[in-house]
């Protein structure tokens, strides 16, 4: 059997989208965690809306507009300079603590890994570089290349074409249930990284092929699946 390709989601799976909470606390105090959560939720909502409307704008636009929305909603009155500083820091969000060891184990086992993200290739490349994990990936595949967003089936087909593999031979690894469901819809095997025990998987009648709490557990899943 051919060695599988592993397509990793980035935001929320390898990179912590709430890595700016401390900086937000300096700006808005005790509402920082609420702001961060709402910012992430609205960012994703905007990608879903744009996908349905076929009015694509890249991920950085969705991120900026979601920031503006939350600032207005919560009445936090961030200055333009504050917003620009937050957006600049968003480009250097930290990786989760288990990422380096988990990716190293997979690479040592001979797995081919690609980064597969709603973010632009340049944005993802910068995140992976600053986290010291860019060399773990053979390629960066961005939805920006076709102007669609996850979980559009065309996005997963694009990933497979770029990776030169079949759906059955390409794992999708993500902490985002909507991403898992999107990949499963095109018959990719899936592994859900449950970063937050409070997150509930959508009751759609489809479950991930595997669920892990730490990325270091993924090697056993991939090697022993099927």
From TrEMBL:
<keyword id="KW-0378">Hydrolase</keyword>
<comment type="function">
    <text>Catalyzes the hydrolytic dehalogenation of small (S)-2-haloalkanoic acids to yield the corresponding (R)-2-hydroxyalkanoic acids.</text>
</comment>
<protein>
    <recommendedName>
        <fullName>(S)-2-haloacid dehalogenase</fullName>
        <ecNumber>3.8.1.2</ecNumber>
    </recommendedName>
</protein>
<dbReference type="InterPro" id="IPR006439">
    <property type="entry name" value="HAD-SF_hydro_IA"/>
</dbReference>
<dbReference type="Pfam" id="PF00702">
    <property type="entry name" value="Hydrolase"/>
</dbReference>
<dbReference type="InterPro" id="IPR023198">
    <property type="entry name" value="PGP-like_dom2"/>
</dbReference>
<dbReference type="InterPro" id="IPR023214">
    <property type="entry name" value="HAD_sf"/>
</dbReference>
<dbReference type="InterPro" id="IPR006328">
    <property type="entry name" value="2-HAD"/>
</dbReference>
<dbReference type="GO" id="GO:0018784">
    <property type="term" value="F:(S)-2-haloacid dehalogenase activity"/>
</dbReference>
<dbReference type="InterPro" id="IPR051540">
    <property type="entry name" value="S-2-haloacid_dehalogenase"/>
</dbReference>
<dbReference type="InterPro" id="IPR036412">
    <property type="entry name" value="HAD-like_sf"/>
</dbReference>
<comment type="similarity">
    <text>Belongs to the HAD-like hydrolase superfamily. S-2-haloalkanoic acid dehalogenase family.</text>
</comment>
């Amino acid at each position: 059997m051919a060695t599988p390709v592993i397509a990793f989601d980035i935001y929320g799976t390898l990179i912590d989208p709430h890595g700016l909470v401390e900086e937000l606390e300096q700006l808005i105090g005790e509402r920082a965690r609420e702001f961060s959560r709402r910012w992430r939720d609205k960012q994703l909502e905007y990608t879903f809306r744009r996908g349905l409307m076929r009015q694509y704008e890249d991920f950085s636009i969705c991120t900026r507009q979601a920031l503006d929305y939350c600032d207005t909603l919560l009445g936090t009155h961030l200055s333009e300079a504050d917003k620009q500083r937050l957006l600049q820091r968003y480009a250097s969000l930290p990786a989760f603590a288990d990422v380096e060891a988990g990716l190293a184990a997979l690479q040592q086992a001979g797995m081919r890994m690609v980064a597969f993200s709603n973010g632009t290739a340049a944005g993802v490349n910068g995140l992976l570089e600053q986290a010291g994990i860019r060399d773990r990936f053979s390629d960066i595949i961005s939805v920006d290349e076709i102007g669609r967003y996850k979980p559009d089936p065309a996005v997963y087909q694009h990933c497979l074409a770029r990776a030169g593999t079949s759906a059955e031979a390409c794992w999708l690894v993500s902490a985002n249930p909507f991403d898992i469901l999107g990949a499963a819809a095109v018959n990719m095997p899936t592994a859900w990284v449950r970063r937050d025990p409070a997150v509930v998987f959508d009751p759609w009648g489809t479950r991930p092929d595997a669920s892990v709490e730490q990325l270091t557990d993924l090697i056993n899943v991939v090697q022993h699946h099927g």
